[in-house]
Amino acid sequence: MTLISKDELATDTFVYRFALPEEHASLGHYTCQYLKFEATVGDEKFERFYHPLSKVADTGYVDLLIKVYLRNFEHQKGGIFTQFIDKMRLGNTDMKLTAIG
């Protein structure tokens, strides 16, 4: 999936918009369904599940509301997957939508 925008809601919370493969495509998901995303960070493959923020009828994109968990004294690594998403540049395609559950 291609990252097409990132809007800051709070210091650590953003809405990330990803383009769907086709401009007129929709996810076809139901309310409260989750999406499974995969990405490789370093040599390790990660899977995370998110509920889409975008509406069922929206076409061409999916919006995700994500809090980025940064490294701190208590959590030395922070949220590896959320930090990966946060560092993505517009046009990046390193994250994949792999399933709708």
Low-confidence stretches: none
Q: Which percent bin holds the helix content?
A: under 10%
State the helix count.
1
Radius of gyration: 14 Å
Could you report the average pLDDT, rounded to the nearest whole number? Answer: 89
Q: What structural category arises from helix and sheet content?
A: mainly beta
Distance between the termini: 18 Å
Could you say which overall geometry the principal axes of the C-alpha atoms support?
globular
Characterize the largest beta sheet: strand count, sense, and whether it forms a barrel.
3 strands, antiparallel
Query: How would you write the strand order of the largest sheet?
Result: 1-2-5
* Number of beta strands: 6
Question: Element order, helices and strands?
Answer: EEEEEHE
Residues in β-strands, percent:
35-45%
Question: Can you walk through the features of this model?
Answer:
The chain is 8% helix and 42% strand. With 101 residues, it is mainly β. The strands form two sheets. It has a three-stranded antiparallel sheet with strand order 1-2-5, with no helix packed on it. A three-stranded antiparallel sheet has the order 4-3-6. It is globular.
Question: Features of this protein?
Answer:
single chain; 101 residues; mainly beta; 3-stranded antiparallel sheet; 6 strands
Concise structural overview:
This protein has 101 residues and is mainly beta. It is built from one helix and six strands; from the N terminus they run E-E-E-E-E-H-E. It has a three-stranded antiparallel beta sheet, with no helix packed on it. Strands 4-3-6 form a three-stranded antiparallel beta sheet.
